[in-house]
UniProtKB/TrEMBL annotation:
Keyword RNA-binding belongs to the record: no
Name listed for the protein in its UniProt record: OmpR/PhoB-type domain-containing protein
SUPFAM superfamilies reported in the protein's UniProt record: C-terminal effector domain of the bipartite response regulators
Molecular function GO labels: DNA binding
All copies of domain OmpR/PhoB-type, residue ranges: 134-245
CDD domains assigned to the protein according to its UniProt record, in alphabetical order: trans_reg_C
Species this protein is from: Enterococcus malodoratus ATCC 43197
DNA-binding residues: 134-245
């Protein structure tokens, strides 16, 4: 069983996270006293060796996190910063510098936590080694940022591709499936009816068509923050939809982008 130590100012604030971790079969130790001992610079190095993960609660302020990280640093321990809804600029900086291994949100689902911790576990098992040049990648719709060599293997060649990857990680399952269908069609137009049939696997009705229109609009909106010169999905009235040729070309040339869509 993997052990997680949560350092916090308030144990009650960690109940939800503790339950999620326990649902994933992690042994969780939550402590305010040990946090105080660390803050007072009491010798605690030997204690950390019993934990594969040390989680720093959102109840701990940035300056305290900066003091704690050097005390915790250990080749066999992964440091995770927990935030409520948004990581701060300092959190990002610590992640970029490799002083934190991941940032998660209190709102992250059990599924999102599972994938984040699994990737960190691979590093702990020696299958992956942390690379100081590794990219930071967002893993969930909330926060779940990770700096890891295994994700670096996605070979993001440009900042534009990195932005595209970030957007694609924010697509819902239905949005990803629609994008996948359009990618499979290449330069061909896919009728709205054909997409509806693939998504809902039943006779197409007005409700399906309306839902498809709304979903395509959301997809277009999510890609607006990227450098694409046109909408991610082209609408051909009376015919259907077609993927933006520029986006199609980037996805086909990038293993990282291709994997996200294919595995979605």
């Amino acid at each position: 069983m993997n052990q997680v130590l949560i350092l916090t100012r308030n144990i009650l604030a960690e109940q939800e996270m503790q339950q999620k971790l326990q649902a994933l079969n992690y042994e969780v130790y939550c402590s305010t006293k040990f946090f105080e001992r660390c803050s007072q610079r009491v010798n605690t190095v030997d204690f950390f060796q019993y934990f594969q993960y040390v989680m720093l609660s959102e109840t701990i302020c940035e300056s305290e996190v900066m003091e704690l990280v050097p005390l915790i640093e250990n080749p066999s321990t992964r440091i995770i910063r927990k935030v409520e809804t948004q990581a701060t600029e300092m959190d990002h900086k610590l992640l970029e510098e490799g002083l934190l291994n991941a940032i998660i949100s209190r709102e992250d689902s059990v599924d999102e936590l599972r994938e984040c911790l699994y990737t960190l576990k691979r590093e702990l098992g020696g299958k992956e080694q942390l690379d100081k040049g590794a990219k930071v990648v967002q893993l969930s719709e909330k926060v779940s940022l990770m700096r890891t060599n295994s994700l670096q293997k996605m070979s993001l060649s440009t900042e534009d591709n990195y932005k595209l990857l970030d957007v694609m990680h924010h697509l819902s399952q239905t949005e990803t499936r629609i994008l996948y269908l359009l990618i499979q069609a290449g330069s061909q137009v896919v009728t709205r009816e054909a997409i509806c049939h693939e998504i809902w696997n039943e006779e197409v009705n007005k409700s399906h068509l309306a839902s498809l229109s709304s979903t395509v609009t959301r997809i277009k909106g999510k890609f607006e923050q990227t450098s694409l010169s046109h909408k991610a999905i082209q609408t051909l009235w009376g015919k259907g939809y077609r993927i933006n040729p520029e986006l199609l070309d980037r996805i086909q040339k990038s293993e990282a982008l291709n994997n996200v869509v294919s595995n979605g």
